[in-house]
Amino acid sequence: YPRVKYASNAPYVIYRKDSGVNGHRLTYVDRTTGVFSAPQDIHARRGLFTKVLLFANSTGVYRDLTTAAGNTTSGDILHTDTGAALKSAGDALYLGLSEKFSYARAALSVFGAGGMVAWQYFNGIAWVTFTPSNGAYNLETDRDIQFWSGESAAPVDWQKTAVSGNTHFFIRAVVVTPFTTNPIGTLLTGYRTTNAFITEEG
């Protein structure tokens, strides 16, 4: 890295950029005009979430943590009503994008313990519980969460829904067993921790 590819005689410079807490984003700039463009993510669905929300069941209040989820400030992903990302039964974390997605990276400042969450997507009628393809995850450690093997493997009945006035494809984690140690987050993005690779095309 970086690599240079050409399309219609215009150079595209592709490189891996650090996104914080061991995450990486595959980025490019092009020179289709007289100057290089601003950096752009190659995979929009593997970047920042459009919306990250926390819901506190005890108060019925949603908090928008989108900015906090995308930066590396330690311990800033928490609901101000509970002092935690998730705590009691019915609390929920929502991750939203305008397109279907398959992956999230969670980095925590406080690891959860004792609790269990149900991962769910919305099928147009109800929230459907599923297990991530790389196994159950209850915010007990930092984790790459592979919801399904890829965007093409996402449920065909997954539909957009409105949550607190925001309409996206949402995946949510709902607390079903209260935590004894409440998780607090530092980073929640779609940027992968593995080394990015570029598929060579003819």
| Shape, per Cα inertia axes | globular
Count the strands?
Answer: 14
Mean pLDDT over all positions: 84
Could you spell the SSE succession in H and E letters?
EEEEEEHEEEEEEEE
Low-confidence stretches: 193-202
**Cα Rg:** 18 Å
Q: What does the main sheet amount to?
A: 7 strands, antiparallel
Strand percentage, roughly? Answer: 35-45%
Number of helices: 1
Distance between the termini: 19 Å
> Oligomeric status of the shown chains?
single chain
User: What proportion of the residues is helical, as a percent range?
Assistant: under 10%
Structural class: mainly beta
Can you describe what's shown?
The chain is mainly beta and 202 residues long. Strands 5, 6, 7, 9, 10, 12 and 13 form a seven-stranded antiparallel beta sheet that branches. A hairpin with a 4-residue loop joins strand 5 and strand 6. The longest helix is centred in the middle third of the chain and has 5 residues. The radius of gyration is 18 Å and the shape is globular.
